[in-house]
């Protein structure tokens, strides 16, 4: 059962998939029906899930699920990953690769390889206040209030000591 993303409760579970490049406006428009259809059809053990899917910041695919209605099972999570893989193939973008970190620099999402993190901090490219998209957050409320968050308020804090 499709639920508009902004109507999911703060406690809704989320999964964030970071794209290897920004989605174009045309790609986002073309994806809207598929995102809506996925959320409409997504089930767990035959039960309809109250779900949504949206592109945020032109760079992230976010899937949300109100687990108060029904929780995801292993099979339904597998189905969501297959959906993400289908989007990768349709659009020609990587969404499941995890080696890059996303920061908001000069108003734009910038990806940085994890191996370059220490050098970027040492060079001053990244500061404790640099907004970081922590894609490990798990709830809609966190998405709305602390995504992106200052790097020092995330697991990256250790790089600024």
Description:
With 161 residues, this protein is an alpha+beta fold. It folds into two domains: 5-91; 100-160, no CATH class. 29% of the residues lie in helices and 24% in strands. The chain contains four helices and nine strands, in the order βαββββαββαβαβ. The protein has helices spanning 25-41, 74-91, 117-122, 140-145, and strands at 13-18, 43-44, 47-48, 51-56, 60-65, 100-105, 108-113, 131-132, 149-150. A three-stranded antiparallel beta sheet has the order 1-5-4. A two-stranded antiparallel sheet has the order 2-3. A two-stranded antiparallel sheet has the order 6-7. The longest helix is centred in the middle third of the chain and has 18 residues, at 74-91. The N and C termini lie far apart (46 Å). The relative contact order is 0.18.
Please give the order of strands in the largest beta sheet: 1-5-4
Helical stretch tally: 4
Distance between the amino and carboxyl termini: 46 Å
- Shape call: globular
Major sheet characteristics = 3 strands, antiparallel
């Amino acid at each position: 059962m499709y639920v508009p993303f902004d109507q999911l409760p703060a406690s809704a579970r989320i999964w964030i998939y970071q794209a290897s490049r920004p989605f174009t406006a045309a790609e986002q428009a073309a994806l809207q029906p598929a995102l809506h259809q996925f959320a409409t059809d997504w089930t767990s053990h035959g039960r309809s899930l109250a779900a949504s899917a949206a592109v945020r910041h032109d760079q992230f695919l976010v899937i949300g699920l109100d687990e108060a209605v029904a929780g995801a099972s292993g099979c339904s999570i597998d189905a969501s990953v297959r959906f993400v893989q289908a989007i990768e193939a349709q659009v020609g973008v990587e969404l499941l690769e995890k080696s890059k970190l996303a920061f908001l620099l000069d108003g734009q999402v910038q990806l940085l390889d994890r191996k370059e993190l220490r050098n970027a901090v040492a060079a001053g490219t990244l500061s404790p206040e640099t907004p970081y998209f922590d894609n490990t957050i798990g709830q809609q409320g966190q998405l709305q209030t602390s995504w992106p968050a200052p790097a020092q308020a995330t697991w990256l804090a250790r790089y600024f000591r």
